[in-house]
Amino acid sequence: MASKLDYRLVFALLIPIILSFFTLYIFNIGTIIVQIQHASGGNLIFILSLMLQANFRFDAISMFTGQPTPLGFLAPQFVIWLLLGYLCGTIAKGGKRGVTTSLILVVIDLLLWILLSVLAAVDLMSLFTTNLIYTLGGIFIALIAGVFGGLIGGLISGPYEDL
User: Fold this and answer.
1) Number of Cβ within a 10 Å radius of residue 43
2) Angstrom distance (rounded) from CA 19 to CA 83
3) What pLDDT digit, counting tens, does each position of 47-65 carry?
4) What is the Cα–Cα distance from 47 to 156, expressed in whole angstroms?
5) How many structural domains are present in the chain?
6) Is pLDDT at 127 greater than 90 in this prediction?
């Protein structure tokens, strides 16, 4: 019984983590690819860091304090985190497991982004001090959309069966 749970949770985390590197390019139609090609200089770790950083580039805080538009709210990053959370919830099965797994996914992606940025010698202090509201807005929208997508995916896939 425990082995099925472990495999289901491992796949519910592994598949969306791998997809989180590439899903922004599907929804953003290559705009980010050109920016990464110009900024990377061929460093693979820096490229991976920029790919994960692009998933958190959505300033939700200033959007709520400014003048929100419906199309502005449905930014590619919001849709990505909904999709990744939905995948986590669908694979994990069950609303509670879907929310837990999608929350773990957002935390793992955030930690991977920070780790890869440190390995690529990116100045994280400037990212978190000068653009604090922008960075926190991206993390906030990832948490909200990821957990909401995990809840929807978990509820649609049905309860987890204990065999």
Assistant:
1) 14
2) 10
3) 788 788 878 777 666 666 7
4) 35
5) 1
6) no
Q: How far apart are CA 81 and CA 105, in angstroms?
A: 10
The verdict on residue 163 lying in a domain is no
For 15, list phi and psi in degrees, rounded to 5: -65, -50
Helix pair angle (44-54, 31-40), 10° resolution: 150
In a domain, residue 56? The reply is: yes
Query: Residue 25's domain spans which residues?
Result: 2-157
Mean pLDDT confidence for 116-125: 85
Inter-residue contact 59 to 79 (CB < 8 Å)? no
Q: What is residue 159's three-state secondary structure?
A: coil
For residues 21, 26, 30 and 31, what is the CA-based torsion angle, rounded to 10 degrees? -80
